[in-house]
Amino acid sequence: MVYYLIKRIMLIPITVFGIIFINFTIIQVAPGGPVEHVLSTLRGSVPDATARITGGHSKETSQTLFAIGSNSRSQYRGAHGLSPEFVRELEQQFGFDKAASERFFMLVRNYLTFNLGKSYYSNKSVISLIIEKLPVSISLGLWSTLIIYLISIPLGIIKSVRDGSRFDIITSYLMITSYAIPNFLFAVLLIIVFSGGRYLNWFPLRGLTSDCWQILTGSERILDYFWHITLPVMVMAISGFASLTLLTKNAFLDELSKQYVVTARAKGLSERSVLYRHVFRNAMLLVIAGFPHTLVRLLFTSSILTEVIFTLDGLGLLGFEAAQRRDYPVMFGTLYVFSLIGLLLNVISDIMLHLVDPRIDFEQRDT
């Protein structure tokens, strides 16, 4: 097992290199770029990414974008366009006066020391932006994953024991329906019903904390935090119940049909003892194996629209706005962090599988 883990850890840098190389190549052939984005913004034709959704305007964008190349703004020619000298100066500021291969190897060399560069527009280091936004995404992902597992595993066990019953059929229909509803649509429905959209005004619409956060006591801050996070967590968790519940149910049904269960029942063991002392460990292997994938999906996919809709300043929104602005350092920095976390979680999943059932030997499987 130790040799297998060492091999998996050694493959992480190679995998990350491949991911960055593929995405860097795609960026080079894709239309547009930070220079074009700045030029379009100077002409007043490109709104902020968040403004497209919320209808507002980003103060930071208006300040930082127009500050780029401010020494050459006198060369702006209005309806006649921008001078070539101004465009070349912008390319030099963004580093596009160098060849693509040179920029790529500089990127890789910097990433080896976790030097992720600076944002084109905010002039902040990418690592500081990620550290600033990461707690929001982690809190959303962890709470959503915790709720999904706390509900789906017991529900899946009950469904396996009562397979084919009315309870099993009704809950299956409900879960499939919830899985079919897109996250953003469910978020809008919750806002309309519970956030003062039309009916009730039980939960806040935006942010993770209230404006009076600084004057609240410790217990009041905890309650305020959970008050704000309730709807976003519900939105992220709703689509995860179906897959994990059905996975748990099918895993238990598969184990219940095996010969060792028949033998345990023949020995006079109670159904509860058979289920939790013998079946549980074997059936939970597939469920545990899916934990990192569930967490990664919630952290880096479901959280994007949730953070945008509820105005949660997290990592998903950071990457989304970076892609809209062509802020390449932030784009590749978030991609780098996403890749590392995902690969490390996969290794942790293998370790958890081995701890749950020591009979699993990945080294023998590879040979």
Automatic annotation (TrEMBL):
Alphabetized UniProt keyword annotations: Cell membrane, Membrane, Transmembrane, Transmembrane helix, Transport
Species, as recorded: invertebrate metagenome
Subcellular location(s) of the protein: Cell membrane
InterPro entries, sorted: MetI-like, MetI-like_sf
Main location: membrane
Annotated GO CC locations: plasma membrane
Domain ABC transmembrane type-1: 134-353
Annotated GO biological process: microcin transport; transmembrane transport
Pfam family, one: BPD_transp_1
This protein's name: Oligopeptide transport system permease protein OppB (TC 3.A.1.5.1)
Transmembrane segments: 9-30, 138-158, 170-194, 225-248, 298-318, 330-348
Membrane topology type: Multi-pass membrane protein
